[in-house]
Amino acid sequence: MSIQRLPPLNAVRAFEAAARLGSYVAASKDLHVTQPAIGRHVKLLEDWLGVQLFERTPRGVSLTPAGQRYYAKISTALQQIADAGHELAPGGTARWLKILVVPAFAKRWLMPRLETLRQQRPGLKVAVEPNPTFTEVDGKSADLGIVYGLPGVYPQCHSTLVRPAVFPVCSPSYLEEHGPLSSVHELAQHKLIHVDDGEWWNLWLSTIGLDLRVNSDVLYVSNDHALSMAEAGHGIALANLVLVKHQLAAGTLVRPLPEEVPLESYQLLLPTGAVSADVAWFEDWIRAALQEEFSPHATHETESTE
């Protein structure tokens, strides 16, 4: 089987860098060549293909429709070539996947599964960086991100992984001392644990149809801290089954009320441009794992404590 005649590969690299970065100047710095060289390579490629790939503007360059189609194909192909060479190079079997992720999800769901993940993807090393405040990933310091929030908040959102129902939790000792709760109206009489100024609790209360507003005197930097305070008996926190499934099963947390409602979702953020084969694999792996464990019925499997 013969390979069809290929375009000049240096010209393809120059085009990819200019398309990815939006200017010949940035592409020249990225590839360590001069700006005129980038322009000559792109012109050569346009002549070879017989189509215009860029519109030139005072601010840089923008892709034509033909350029957009070509970039989508060649950026993926170049990434696959890079991945293939890295895997064959001496020491190249160790590949790093760098993940930014909200802390509670990192500690309570992802990190306990890292060894299983690595066994399923030989040669892959994973670096997890818990971060409660990030909104995007750059493809260099992190290959992908996992956030928890409402739809439309994150421009880099590639897909929704799971949207679990949210419900109150507390420790058995807190419930024994201060409970039981017979209705959600009684929440106003209890110590509620917050990760913000009361916005999340108020969203939950309004979504279940309760005309009640609360605010916080103390807030914690992440859901993981809030849930740790709840486990220690300091009050009632909001949680979802992704974060507290094992704690509910072990009895270190209980549900004082049966009410639950979906609010935010866990979302996968990807940087602009092509992603590696490992990132694409991880996306498939995490979506399948979450959907298998937290089907639409999973949020109803744990009964509340009366």
Could you walk me through the main structural features you see in this protein, from its secondary elements to its overall organization?
42% of the residues lie in helices and 16% in strands. It has 306 residues and is α+β, with helices and mostly antiparallel strands. It has a 5-stranded mixed sheet with strand order 4-3-5-10-6, covered by helices on one side. It has a 3-stranded antiparallel sheet with strand order 8-7-9. A two-stranded antiparallel sheet has the order 1-2. α1 (9-21) crosses α2, α1 (9-21) crosses α3 (35-49) and α2 packs across α3 (35-49). The relative contact order is 0.14. One of its GO terms (molecular function) is sequence-specific DNA binding. Residues 7-64 form the HTH lysR-type domain. Keywords: DNA-binding, Transcription, Transcription regulation.
Low-confidence stretches: 297-306
- Indicate the radius of gyration in whole angstroms: 25 Å
Structural class: alpha+beta
Rounded average pLDDT: 86
Helical element count?
11
Spatially, the strands of the biggest sheet line up as 4-3-5-10-6
GO molecular function, one term: sequence-specific DNA binding
Pfam family, one: LysR_substrate
Keywords: DNA-binding, Transcription, Transcription regulation
Organism: Pseudomonas denitrificans
List keywords for this structure.
306 residues; alpha+beta; 5-stranded mixed β-sheet; 16% strand; elongated; LysR family transcriptional regulator; transcription; transcription regulation; WH-like_DNA-bd_sf
